[in-house]
Description:
The protein is an alpha+beta fold. It has helices at 23-34, 48-57, 80-88, and strands spanning 14-18, 40-43, 66-69, 75-76.
Amino acid sequence: MGRFGTGGSDGTAVTVYWRPGCVFCIKLRTQLRLARIPYRKVDIWRDPEAAAFVRGVADGNETVPTVVVAGHPPMVNPSLARIRRALADT
């Protein structure tokens, strides 16, 4: 999976693929901040490789937020609870 499908290169276990103006992305990123869960964000409109990754895991669509928790399959539009469960399993 190259640089995708793993945690962030900075040691964070959560990577959030997002795009500007996405209300679902804003909501999830706010929830992650309030829960004090560190994450790396990747803007798919600025990173063509990230956009291709998201299309590859979202049935050809650029559905965001797409979240990767290290050691787990990518999650398309997950809830905070689902991310917490994945983190508990790492």
